Structures
1.
Amino acid sequence: SSIASTFRLAASARTLVQVMRETRARAMAEGVALDVAFDASTSNWSIRTVAGTIRRTEVLPAPVRFQALPVRARIRFASTGSADNGTIVLGTGAASRRIIVNQRGRARLS
């Protein structure tokens, strides 16, 4: 149903913004850069080191998809807490939610 889809969309967006915040905190605590990478074809996202070691990977619940991603399909959080500017758009049907990350590494839902 569309109510279930809308609920999944909201939950996915909340989860992903929380993952961004946790990844930023972890990058600062460990003193290393960490990426949150996205794959639109498989609807999955992952947390990885710059060397490519995957620490966590998850798939968006159907029918939620990535509708728009940063050019490099990732957000990199530096050890200083700064990040790539980027917007991730999750959507299902006509509904969508945006996650916006600024250069200070702050992630917010819009």
2.
Amino acid sequence: DHNSCLSVIIAHIFTGGGKYIHIEASRPAKQHQFAELLSPFIWGPKCLHFFYHMYGLHMGRLDVLVRAVGQPQSYLTWQRTGNQGNQWRKAVVDIPNVDEFQVGFILPIP
């Protein structure tokens, strides 16, 4: 049994700097634990590029959500679930919003 971990690198997409989040999906992770990375509010439309690594038997999922200014709910724009192999993968997501919005990367543990 290999370790399960989920990592996301978001580099040079919002502020010119890089951000990284990581959550351990195997023990000692606790059920319903999650990591969240939120962008500042930005104006669209945008094309979002990021890298993710989802490897292991107990892999959860990675959600990318968008929330427009003034809206109480976010909507799911991209999702991956389960083991994606022991490699970094690139994702590209078109965000057609023309108003101001925020992007959230959510890494929940099932």
